[in-house]
Amino acid sequence: MTVNDVKIILNAKVWCCESKLSAEVHSACGSDMMSDVLAFVKDQSVLLSGLINPQVIRTAEMMDMLCVIFVRGKQPDETILALAKEKEICIITTAHPMFTACGLLYQHGLKGGCSAE
Question: So what's the pLDDT on residue 86?
Answer without folding.
Answer: 97
